[in-house]
Amino acid sequence: MNGVRGRDTRRTESRLALVASPTPAAQQAAATFAQRYEFVPLDEADIVIALGGDGFLLQTLHTMLDRHRIKPVFGMNLGTVGFLMNEWRMDALDERLARARRFSVTPLRMEAETVDGESFSSAAINEVSLLRETRQTAWIEVSVDGRVVLPELVCDGVLAATAAGSTAYNLSAQGPILPLGSGLVALTPISAFRPRRWRGAILPESAKISFRVLDPVKRPVSAVADQREVRDVALVRVGIDRATCLSLLFDPDHALDDRITMEQFAV
Questions:
Q1: Which of 140, 161, 175, 195 is deepest in the core (most CB within 10 A)?
Q2: Which Gene3D superfamilies does the record cross-reference, listed alphabetically (predicted)?
């Protein structure tokens, strides 16, 4: 995650940091980039250029959250899907940044308590998911704003997703796609056995969601905030973290809001 200083450089209007996935393609691209543009360490940058896939972009955002150094990120896809990334191109970086559209993303905050009484807190840009750890189905009580809405959800798991993350794991679990800026959170079951007909809910961002594991010893459950896992949880609280705001930059013809909208028509 250290910034890369370039050689034989041309200056852009903003101070840029360069981070890259450890994959060979991303590392090769970063080496080439460093020969054409000047980069500064992450803490000194105005904008972060991230080379890799969606997973690496999430890792970059979490690193900035951990270090309390939140900067706008312009990602370029050198991964597999790259839904949160722009097209990889070497040329005209300064022009692309000048024309880029900025999107604000507010993450979820997960507060988890384990069977042993330990407490953990983590941000989730895409989703918070609860998943069974063994072959035994999970038994989970679901509450919204202090009211029990599902006394016993028997399932492989359940997740809460932001609009930005609604096209990721949430969509794979047959959850709804939420337009960016809709002010909504998706609550989606994962292979629900009971109640059989419950397909999830769409909640306002102000909602406070609680998951209580009903038999955490016999039927252990883990909680995952994006890529960060807490095992053997007993209680998980999830809500939008209004104190935190992340910024993603996109080419105007590749903007995140339009891509999320068009996913509703993908066949």
A1: 161
A2: Probable inorganic polyphosphate/atp-NAD kinase, domain 1, Probable inorganic polyphosphate/atp-NAD kinase, domain 2
